Amino acid sequence: MPEPRPYALSIAGFDPSGGAGLLADCKTLESNAVYGLGVCTALTVQNDVAFERVQWVSAADILDQARLLFARFTIEYVKIGLIESLTQLPELLAWLQAQNPRVCIIWDPVLKASAGYEFHNSLPLALVEALCKPLALLTPNRPEMLRLWPAVTPEAAAREVSAFCPVLLKDGHADGASATDILFLNGEEHAFTAPRLPHGEKHGSGCVLSAAVLAHLAKGESLEDACRAGKAYTATVLASNPTLLGYHSAFSTHHAYQ
User: Fold this and answer.
1) Residue 154, domain member (yes or no)
2) With 70 as the cut, is the pLDDT of residue 253 above it?
3) Could you tell me which residue ranges the Pyridoxamine kinase/Phosphomethylpyrimidine kinase domain spans (predicted)?
4) Which of 10, 20, 49 shows the shortest CA–CA distance to 204?
5) Angle at CA 21, nearest 5°, toward 72 and 49?
6) Closest to 149 measured CA to CA, from 137, 162, 136
7) What is the pTM of this model?
């Protein structure tokens, strides 16, 4: 008999292309030997290159979806992606902690669709601080980091926000021969580098990375090791084919980049 898998919950939007959001998260969790549960926050009309519109799921329906899952399963690991109201996000975070005081929450802030649609503009810094304090990890890309916390550089912003929670600053939107993600944790910085592939751009790569980190946390790894393994898994998806939609497959942490 196979070993029981831990459960992890994705609270995210539904992308019909399967490249991002809820479907991508559950694919990633499954490929990393974690059972993925899902709560839908939005129904989007999009593919990998075009975004037309979004229909938001109400806060009450989001909680109703999650309530039955928490009643049935032991959920200690949660990822939050696209959500309509960031001013109401603290209420969701508090609700999750009320269901399980030990819950480990990753927030992957989706502020703008890769096809250009704007979900959220600038946020009050006090709200960003309130959102970050309950988190186990914040996973913005470089443009998102500066929108969340204006500073001279994304690194400076991440360094400041890491006073509230650990930050994994994703480097997928930069240039250069390699892509280096940086984990800001307890005053230290840990870099994870992989080659930047010539056809490695993928729709939803940030979703994949944060979900992969969540999977490895659910399997008991440290945050640093989970980020390293998440980076390595994402690299396999980026290298899987030359299109904008990556392929997922079973993954071993032995391939992790140092």
Assistant:
1) yes
2) no
3) 15-244
4) 20
5) 160
6) 162
7) 0.93
The CATH number for 16's domain is 3.40.1190.20
Q: Is residue 2 part of a domain?
A: no
Indicate whether 184 belongs to any domain. yes
- 3-state SS, one letter per residue, for the chain: CCCCCCEEEEEEEECCCCCCHHHHHHHHHHHCCCEEEEEEEEEEEECCCCEEEEEECCHHHHHHHHHHHHHHCCCCEEEECCCCCCCCHHHHHHHHHHHCCCCEEEECCCCECCCCCECCCCCCHHHHHHHHCCCCEECCEHHHHHHHCCCCCHHHHHHHHCCCCCEEEECCCCCCCEEEEEEEECCEEEEEEEECCCCCCCCCHHHHHHHHHHHHHHCCCCHHHHHHHHHHHHHHHHCCCCCCCCCCCCCCHHHCCC
Q: Are 65 and 39 in contact (CB under 8 A)?
A: yes
Number of structural domains in the chain: 1
Tell me the two tokens of residue 8: 């992890």
How is the beta sheet containing 77-80 ordered, strand by strand? Answer: 51-56, 35-46, 7-14, 77-80, 104-107, 137-138, 167-169, 178-185, 188-195
> What are 112-139's pLDDT values in tens digits?
655 455 566 678 899 999 999 999 999 9
Number of Cβ atoms within 10 Å of the Cβ of 212: 28
